[in-house]
């Protein structure tokens, strides 16, 4: 079944509201055709629609969705694509403020762990898709699904690597073991000012089509109805692309 919730964290610490903090830095008119502009990087409506189409195609191909995809599901998937970009900007800024560097090797290590974990999860189904599709499908099956599209798995892995670096840095400063559940409250307290500072520094604009801002909670509230309606042709095209990718053995 298609569903999406805020991006899961690789670290043991889960910060409720970490995503929401980033949405406070916004304003100004949207560029034509833009779904979001995050730190000056423009993501188009077409890109988001393609990502949503690829998720729908993946879950339908693997019989996870019964019946038609609802407006609420489409809205959640569209918002999830934007939320991932905001997450990336927030944690990248936090890492930069702390003087931390996350390398491509760190990203590769994180993605490799995700692929190994998620392929094991799908093992009983003898999943033959690409590594990125395996991660996206395992995400779709989980109770904490974040609405990952196969094409955004590398971004997701980078976000996890950023989170891990920032959490470990704050844990070291506070002389805390980040893997000890008893330290979660203390780590949350240590991370809060870091994320608040980062949230005030990033620049985020989101199209009202994907929701609206609640100033009282600094959260993006999803639109009640979704304008994202992938056509059968778009879903079929996404299916063909996935099949072609599987045939070539690519991610």
Give a verbal description of the structure.
The structure is a single chain. By secondary structure, this protein is mostly helical. Strand 4 and strand 5 form a beta hairpin. About 12% of the residues have low confidence.
Defining traits:
251 residues; mainly alpha; three-stranded antiparallel beta sheet; two-stranded antiparallel ribbon; 8 helices; globular
Distance between the termini: 23 Å
Query: What is the helix fraction of residues, given as a range?
Result: 40-55%
Strand content: 5-15%
Element order: H for helix, E for strand? HEEHHHHHHEEEH
Strands ordered across the widest β-sheet: 2-1-3
Low-pLDDT runs of 5+ residues are 4-25, 213-219
Q: Which class of secondary structure composition applies to the elements?
A: mainly alpha
Give the beta-strand count.
5
Write the SSE topology.
Layout: H1 18-22, E1 34-38, E2 41-44, H2 45-61, H3 71-97, H4 104-121, H5 131-141, H6 153-173, H7 184-201, E3 204-206, E4 212-214, E5 219-221, H8 232-248
Antiparallel strand pairs: 1-2, 1-3, 4-5
Helix pairs in contact: 2-3, 2-8, 3-6, 3-7, 4-5, 4-6
